[in-house]
Amino acid sequence: MARNPLFDGALRVVREVALRALERASRPTSPTKRRRTTPRPAPRPTPTTPADYPGDFRGSPAITYHPLADERPDPGEVVWTWVPYEDDPTQGKDRPVLLIGRDGPWLLGLQVTSQDHDVDEAQEAAAGRYWMDIGTGGWDHRGRASELRVNRIVRIDPDAVRRVGAVLDRETFDAVAREVRRHY
């Protein structure tokens, strides 16, 4: 039987949302647990398929650094989530993303990779792709050095984030913000 990647992706998103809901419902509440101090974005329906992706963010982003220890994705954190391919947003892959801000109910993120684009920097630039080294972090269980793309900002559904991988240190985040602003 032929597999449908779009259907498989939708099932994966539904499965992840259901597992997160079950995990939260079975977790005991603790009075000492740190509470969220900023309001959550307005609720909205979760996209059921990658085809619901509204497109990459265009314009100049309001970049913020505000990681919170609350198990929810926040700007300044590297998270794992589904990222659409640039040439076909109905397709994509699960990958780490650095969150840099918000656009209404969406999070804004930069894709992270362990591939070294320094070796093909001229070729990448000719194709309109610009990368920056960010070092290593808890988002990569093998401890590999990472880079992120500074001139493509993807919109991320907060409910589709699979896990928070790590908080990027403020100094590196500020350097990333400067590079992003150079391209927008």
UniProtKB/TrEMBL annotation:
GO terms for molecular function: DNA binding. SUPFAM superfamilies: Cell growth inhibitor/plasmid maintenance toxic component (SSF50118). It comes from the Bacteria. InterPro entries: PemK-like. This is Growth inhibitor PemK. It comes from Tessaracoccus lapidicaptus.
